[in-house]
Amino acid sequence: MGGAGVEVGSRDRPCKWVQLPPSGPHTDQHGSQPWEDPGPAHTDGSVSHPQCAGEEDWVDSRTVYVGHREPPPGAEAYIPQRYPDNRIVSSKYTFWNFVPKNLFEQFRRVANFYFLIIFLVQLIIDTPTSPVTSGLPLFFVITVTAIKQGYEDWLRHKADNAMNQCPVHFVQHGRLVRKQSRKLRVGDIVLVKEDETFPCDLIFLSSSRADGTCHVTTASLDGESSHKTHYAVQDTKGFHSEEDIDSLHATIECEQPQPDLYKFVGRINVYNDQNDPVVRPLGSENLLLRGATLKNTEKIFGVAIYTGMETKMALNYQSKSQKRSAVEKSMNTFLIVYLCILISKALVNTVLKYVWQSTPFQDEPWYSRKTEAERQRSLFLRAFTDFLAFMVLFNYIIPVSMYVTVEMQKFLGSYFITWDNEMFDEELGEGPLVNTSDLNEELGQVEYVFTDKTGTLTENNMEFRECCVEGRVCAPHAVCNGQALPDASATDMIDASPGASGREREELFFRALCLCHTIQVKDDEEVDGPQKSPDSGKRSAYISSSPDEVALVEGIQRFGFTYLRLKDNYMELLNRDNDVERFELLEILSFDSVRRRMSVIVKSAAGEIYLFCKGADSSIFPRVIEGKVDQIRSRVERNAVEGLRTLCVAYKRLVPEEYEGICKLLQAARVALQDRDKKLAEVYEQIETDLVLLGATAVEDRLQEKAADTIEALQKAGIKVWVLTGDKMETAAATCYACKLFRRNTQLLEVTTKRLEEHSLHDVLFELSKTVLRCSASLTRDNFSGLSADMQDYGLIIDGAALSLIMKPREDGSSSNYRELFLDICRNCSAVLCCRMAPLQKAQIVKLIKFSKEHPITLAIGDGANDVSMILEAHVGIGVIGKEGRQAARNSDYAIPKFKHLKKMLLVHGHFYYIRISELVQYFFYKNVCFIFPQFLYQFFCGFSQQTLYDTAYLTLYNISFTSLPILLYSLMEQHVAMDTLKRDPALYRDIAKNALLRWRAFIYWTLLGLFDALVFFFGAYFMFENTTVTSNGQIMTSNTHVVFGNWTFGTLVFTVMVFTVTLKLALDTHYWTWINHFVIWGSLLFYVVFSLLWGGVVWPFLSYQRMYYVFIQLLSSGPAWLAIVLLVTVSLLPDVLKKVLCRQLWPSAIERVQTRNQCLSVEQPTVFMLSQTSSSLTF
């Protein structure tokens, strides 16, 4: 009954009103339902609906015709659909757009665009330097970056082609046809066999299994290797052959593609014999995603609904927002400063030129007379042209090659993390991953670490510890590490033996645990994915995506109840009497993080209908009307204090009439295309009420290896650690004590819902503020850590509800709220625990700290999908490759196997990365000041004529060849302190905190050092050539050194001293020497000498000038020139050497003290060895 002319999927169209027929039993092509609020009515009884993209009350949907078969006449209008094919395109460029698109992206960078402008100016006007001097370095940078990006994109093209050309089996006209994956279209029926990946997003129609289920692993999507069970459509699961499935007559209405892997809303209309269609709801359990793999199922049939770039996997390709490191921001700031210096230099020289030329004919020497046209040119135009010429002359102060060097350093340096064998986990068989290399140095600047608890601090390896039934505690000590101990007693009973009703409740409790889950049992010896054996004597295994469920079902075996299997929609279990009990599975009310519980509705062999519910205590207790609530709550709180994960179990009996009403409510909610999740949640709330409490369970999630040691090291390094978890406060607090986040002397401050019931938020916050600020005023407190023994140590605990109140603006509408007060309290606490946190609240906490007035560098680490939001929000996001899947690892900047590896990641790798890139940035600016300031000084001696001091080859190759490799190798290999020392002494991390090496003080020092060295280069060479005479053949010769003198000889001497000085300066800064360092540093100096000899020793036919011919050879043939080079290099390096010696002796940093101590030890060890050898040789 769709309105004719309505085009499906018009997502990005403007608003328009579409005429629809009067209401009927089916939806239109856009998925409008009869229960929607109608729009304005028309005289013919039809209604209009506004169709606007992006409106919250509008669901943009599509209709898919299964097998491309038109609906029966009169059922609904058939509208041809246009959807993309099944090609996946992850590449960024094509053959045709690579050059323009790549150039556009590269010239968006300020430095590249600046050098392009300089290059164009050199081409347009008469400038003192050749366009080659700017064009060649720019071309080199652009080419290297383009090659790197082109190669990476070629690899993506290669992977795309392999994926798009893989064979897929289609069902056409009742038989199988084999085609390439890219030719698959929406509506095609596809056959997928075991261990094959799904070629697109499919609606599951039928499988080779009689119960219409299949097992799927989504490791390539979210990393979860556990098996997930999917269910075929009830009315199509009996179609097992190609002929049967080809006879299917159905249409599917579903939402338009969206990236959420775990959400899907749709419904299928199955037409049988021209009657009204059977409408069935479709959810995520019916959707098979592209990239997932079929397991333990021979074959399945499915219909394609999303193809190509509209599949959920492809929609998740979109890149995350770009993160920029603090070092990169400092680089850009310094670049602006140097740009201002450049403009100032050009402006000063332009003004002085015209001041100097104000004397008549001063601007027209006898050898360079102006033409009449030149005399008539506008003064402003001449001045502007001269200004541009000076800009070109001094433009090398902006180091364009620094950007490509930094990119290479980050890209190559990231391999040191992936190659680190100490961070390789043997159990997982995996090491660390680097998803982005742009933030390497940010690992050395972290001030706050926000960590998840379950799976990050703990192992997420659950072990059943005990259960409390009707107030009686049962502890199966026989279960240890997932293995049954044959000689152990079955239970340890506390309290009195149960009566008749107690015995019934106890057995009902164990049945509830056997039935209320989503575990699958595989009756084979070999099962893919994580598994647990339900009975060591049977060839079977438990398969579940939740380790909690496996631990519970495994644990209650010790009480005589064993879950066997789900067969033909009947759940079978073995009771204490070894009798098999069968329960018909009627409904599953799935678990979600908002409800924090799940339920099943089952029917026993006697015809009784039960609803069994299990979930968090906070979600079960409010719905309980009967049971020993106080005793069970007391036990739950005690277990939580011990750090155990607790669940409560409840039930209620349903009469058939009540169950029929529930079915109708569920069916109405499940077939909704609009707000289905919301409607289902409302129905679940109605159903899960008036429960009878049966008992509670306790499961232990052990602390990860060296988690406490890692947190302690981070705190010593000056890093504040916050734990953000969804667990209850008592459980989370116990874990915090176990991992040494809280200590015995830590005074806990609480901002929790329980406390806010007694006092207002304003009173609580101000009371805590006075407490912590009074302590901080009386003691000199370190900003980052509260580890001192002579001061009060505070820890803060806050829950999600209290955080919501803090983040909420005040009722009077004022913009001020309690955030700043809350932040002041947090700053004075050594650790903070945030419990009962929703995923979005985790991100809010990170954002709150990230944008506080100090703007600290934040790091978030987690292992589950609920941690993705905070990982994306933090400056650095780290995913733990854990048991909750790899969504966190996929969305993170770095991924590590275990939490303990965070210690080396930050304290060693982060420290080295920051030290290296800081030196790289400062060194680049320093050597360019050394390079260009003599050129500035030279203008005072050449009448501001824009005469260049250096030869074109030297201008071009200075940053590309002569000085580039030493600093690149330094930035990759430098270790100013040994790795073991950094791990042993975390406090060394504080020395580089808050971008210490790139502050203005350090930047000014490097700049002044460059200015001093430039003055030494220039005036040292100038005074050497001060007295000159003209020889008989017209040459100018110095009277004191007898060196043939000229401007190119002068410039070459300055350049030679400069190259040796900046290279030796780097050698003095190097602490970690390898053969590679020696080869590159001394090799660079040798290359400069050899190049200069060849450049000036051969008449090059392709050059229009030969001004450098024999210049370098003539210079080196003079003994005084050699002496001048040695003296000037020594004088240039002397201030830096003296500064280092004095600072090391008088004001040593922690790192310098360690270096001195290590040097002393290295000297003592050979001495001790020699003495021992001498004494042994004297012993007879």
UniProtKB/TrEMBL annotation:
> Superkingdom of this entry's organism?
Eukaryota
Protein name per UniProt: ATPase phospholipid transporting 11A
The upper taxonomy is: Eukaryota, Metazoa, Chordata, Craniata, Vertebrata
